[in-house]
Amino acid sequence: MPAAALVGGDEDTGYRAAMTSLARGRVHISGLAVGSAQRALDESVRHAAVTTQGSTPIGDFQLVQAHLADMQTGIMAGRALARDAAAKYVSGEDRRISPSVAKLYCTEMVGQVADKAVQIHGGSGYMREMTVERIYRDVRLLRLYEGTSEIQRLIIGGGLVREAKRALK
Ligand SMILES: Cc1cc2nc3c(=O)[nH]c(=O)nc-3n(C[C@H](O)[C@H](O)[C@H](O)COP(=O)(O)OP(=O)(O)OC[C@H]3O[C@@H](n4cnc5c(N)ncnc54)[C@H](O)[C@@H]3O)c2cc1C
After folding, report:
1. Is 146 among the residues known to form the active site?
2. pTM of the predicted model, to two decimals?
3. What pLDDT shows up at residue 132?
4. What is the pLDDT of residues 30-55, one digit of tens each?
5. Residue 11 pLDDT grade (very low, low, confident, very high; cuts 50, 70, 90)
6. Nearest-10 Cα torsion for 141, 145, 149, 150
7. Which residues have any ligand 1 atom within 6 Å of their CB?
């Protein structure tokens, strides 16, 4: 390939630009995952408060409360990670490992949160008209594009080992 046909004139420059843009996308997707998870939780809390089984609101059942607690915990942890990764991306402190950590955690988290949201909604959560059904379907993509969860693990694990080797030199 002639240099004139390469971004930046060599293979390294273009590759680095592509990797940096992927890292930025991963921070963005982390935020998308946290926002989607928050909406799934909001819908679930509302549903649990107003929907009764017998005459008891399902939100009074402790097993339903446990689902809500796990959802809230995952969302708060994911939001903190996404903010941390965004700050490190903007400052330039870390544009490699933190974006992958945030994407891996937040996209796996939203998958679990969406699944619990459907569970709390019962059979109605499986219906196309319901917001949580849409979220459940949509967020499945987040673990695939801009690098699958497996690829994020390779970036994180490989990056840690590379850093350790560099420190030993
Ligand atoms: C809706 C949507 C929008 C998209 N938008 C874009 C876009 O705008 N730009 C763009 O470039 N791409 C886009 N993609 C493509 C997306 O990035 C790829 O689908 C994704 O990276 C996975 O690649 P693949 O489909 O080739 O699967 P594969 O790479 O074949 O992966 C299949 C499975 O093998 C695993 N795997 C692959 N390699 C390894 C490995 N080395 N070690 C361990 N496991 C591995 C994967 O994790 C996965 O589980 C989009 C995809 C979708 C579904």
Report:
1. yes
2. 0.94
3. 98
4. 999 999 999 999 999 999 999 999 99
5. confident
6. 130
7. 141, 144-145, 147-148, 150-151, 154
List the beta bridge partners of residue 52.
57
> Is 139 in contact with 103 (CB distance < 8 Å)?
no
**Which atom belonging to ligand 1 lies closest to the Cα atom of 146?**
17
Share of the chain above pLDDT 70, in %: 100
For residue 120, the SS3 value is helix
57 φ/ψ angles, rounded to the nearest 5 degrees: -60, 135
2 three-class SS: coil
Which is the closest atom of ligand 1 to the Cα of 154?
A: 42
Q: What spacing in Å lies between the alpha carbon of 25 and ligand 1's midpoint?
A: 14
Ligand 1 atom index nearest CA of 148: 47
Residue 138's identity, in one-letter code, is D
Residue 149 has what pLDDT?
98
Ligand 1 centroid vs 64 CA: distance in angstroms? Answer: 35
Which positions ≥6 away from 57 have C-beta within 8 Å? Answer: 48, 49, 50, 51
